[in-house]
């Protein structure tokens, strides 16, 4: 009973320490519901200029021309030019800028062709994917390449250089604002599904919404905040802190901001409000906001990446009317339709103003902690193999045969080299704790992989998966602490009867347990408040 009491006390102390560490690892901010909702004047997203006659979708037949854009250093990018046939006079023109989900010259074909049928010349260049990875994205370099494509578009016959602008989606809107800060000849900017905020702030909106829709328990939602608070620089993810605010002030031209009301990845209300506020601060009141019954790609339906979906109703018509209206001279007050219109959006969570971390503030440190446990267990396993091999080599009750030339001599193992066995009282807790730590780590990593996969798949609601899985992990975490307490107490009792290698194995296993518990603590498995 005394031993059970000691083990229980050790386990309680360990869980108290883990709980305190878990509290200290919490970020210094919280995901908050968004309450400052935008005022939508009309549910109809149509855009109509006042007292101005413009071309409409389908008015002209179109033709496509394959081009190449010289981006320097002997490199070129393919591009597709679409033009209205027999459209009179100099035509407005629009350059398309890719987001993270597209990169080819054939992308945006339905939007670009619809715009061309309304008399607008469009150019869709491919995006260079060189050194474009999850770890590195050079937005200024992309802006420079798109600037060269814009020069190509402006030089096309019958293009009105004074009415040449840009269309950008999602991540491409960051590139568009950099481009606008470098050039002052951009006549208009149509920004669709714009993140607006820094990458980690925008992801706070997306991940909070995804986790909520998936029915994730509160600790899982808090884990997303911890991840978003980390310093990513050891992995080259500096673009997570892209300074979107710095470039927003470059939007001094007429701006069209469009969002799909089913887009859970973007700050669909907060983003539009920030663009209007920053533009007005810089003297630009020509910002039009439209919402459509569409998703992130402005496709009808709620599927985030579902292929083959049609564009949201009225999207291309509103886009074309706005471009043609701007080209015809419509000012911020020259519209027969309101500034903000479309279905009422419902942004659930606000983009945070800060993302301060807890005591673990680096992704590199977190990865190191999570890898240290399995690595130390691996080293302990190697040491155990070495110990077993040494014991097997020394143990020869019948002697060891060694060949020297053509003669053989039989040496009998002296009694002093008798079998060195690991005491059962030490070997069993070592193996038991090691196996429990490996199982706990595997389940934790598997659970995190499932959460990540669900995020990539737009978090298909699966509340039972997250709720049951989370509580199972919590039970396993408590069992690991109890096993650690039992193992530590047993190893301490046998500390005088073990050899150097065995002592090293014990310390390695205990260290592995410490790192494993630390990683489990970071993910909130010991937080019950």
From TrEMBL:
- Entries under Gene3D superfamilies matching the protein: alpha/beta hydrolase (3.40.50.1820)
Reading the lineage from the top rank, the first entry is Bacteria
Taking the record's annotation, the residue ranges forming a coiled coil are none
Instruction: Give GO terms: molecular function aspect only.
Output: carboxylic ester hydrolase activity
UniProt keywords (A-Z) are: Membrane, Transmembrane, Transmembrane helix
TM ranges = 363-389, 442-462, 468-486, 506-526
InterPro entries per UniProt: AB_hydrolase_Est10 (IPR053145), AB_hydrolase_fold (IPR029058)
Question: Which PANTHER family does UniProt cross-reference here?
Answer: ESTERASE ESTD
Q: What is this protein called?
A: Putative membrane protein
Which organism is this protein's natural source? Answer: Bifidobacterium saguini DSM 23967
List the taxonomic lineage.
Bacteria, Bacillati, Actinomycetota, Actinomycetes, Bifidobacteriales
């Amino acid at each position: 009973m005394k031993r059970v009491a000691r083990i229980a006390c050790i386990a309680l102390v360990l869980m108290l320490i883990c709980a305190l560490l878990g509290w200290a690892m919490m970020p210094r901010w919280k995901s908050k519901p968004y309450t400052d909702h935008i005022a939508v004047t009309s549910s109809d997203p149509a855009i109509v200029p006042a007292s101005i006659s413009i071309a409409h979708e389908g008015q002209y037949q179109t033709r496509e021309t394959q081009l190449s854009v010289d981006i320097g250093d002997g490199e070129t990018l393919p591009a597709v030019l679409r033009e209205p046939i027999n459209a009179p006079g100099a035509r407005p023109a629009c350059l398309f800028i890719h987001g993270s989900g597209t990169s080819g010259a054939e992308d945006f074909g339905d939007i670009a062709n619809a715009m061309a049928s309304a008399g607008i010349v469009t150019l869709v260049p491919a995006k260079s994917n060189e050194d474009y990875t999850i770890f590195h994205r050079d937005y200024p370099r992309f802006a420079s390449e798109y600037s060269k494509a814009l020069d190509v578009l402006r030089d096309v016959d019958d293009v009105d250089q004074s009415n040449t602008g840009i269309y950008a989606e999602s991540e491409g809107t960051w590139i568009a604002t950099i481009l606008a800060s470098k050039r002052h000849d951009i006549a208009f900017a149509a920004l669709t599904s714009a993140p607006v905020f820094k990458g980690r702030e925008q992801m706070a909106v997306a991940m909070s919404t995804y986790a909520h829709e998936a029915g994730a328990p509160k600790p899982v939602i808090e884990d997303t905040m911890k991840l978003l608070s980390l310093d990513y620089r050891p992995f080259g993810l500096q673009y997570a802190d892209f300074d979107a605010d710095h470039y927003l002030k470059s939007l001094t031209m007429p701006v069209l901001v469009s969002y799909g009301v089913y887009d859970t990845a973007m700050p669909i209300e907060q983003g539009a409000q920030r663009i209007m506020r920053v533009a007005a601060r810089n003297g630009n009141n020509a910002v039009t906001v439209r919402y459509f019954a569409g998703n992130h790609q402005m496709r009808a339906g709620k599927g985030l990446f579902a292929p083959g979906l049609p564009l949201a109703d009225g999207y291309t018509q509103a886009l074309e009317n706005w471009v043609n209206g701007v080209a015809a001279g419509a000012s911020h007050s020259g519209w027969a339709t309101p500034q903000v219109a479309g279905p009422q959006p419902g942004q659930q969570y606000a983009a945070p103003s800060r993302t301060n971390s807890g005591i673990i503030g680096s992704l590199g440190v977190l990865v190191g902690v999570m890898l240290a446990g399995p690595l130390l267990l691996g080293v302990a396993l190697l040491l155990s193999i070495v110990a077993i091999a040494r014991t097997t080599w020394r143990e020869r009750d019948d002697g060891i045969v060694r060949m020297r030339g053509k003669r053989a001599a039989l040496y009998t193992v002296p009694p002093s080299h008798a079998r060195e066995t690991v005491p059962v009282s030490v070997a069993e807790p070592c193996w038991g704790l090691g196996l429990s730590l490996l199982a706990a780590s595997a389940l934790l990593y598997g659970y995190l992989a499932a959460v990540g996969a669900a995020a990539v798949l737009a978090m298909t609601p699966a509340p039972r998966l997250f709720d049951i899985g989370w509580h199972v992990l919590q039970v396993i975490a408590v069992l690991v602490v109890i096993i650690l307490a039992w193992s530590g107490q047993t190893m301490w009792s046998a500390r005088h009867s073990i050899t150097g290698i065995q002592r090293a194995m014990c310390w390695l296993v205990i260290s592995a347990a410490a790192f494993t518990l630390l990683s489990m603590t970071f993910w909130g498995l010991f937080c019950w408040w």
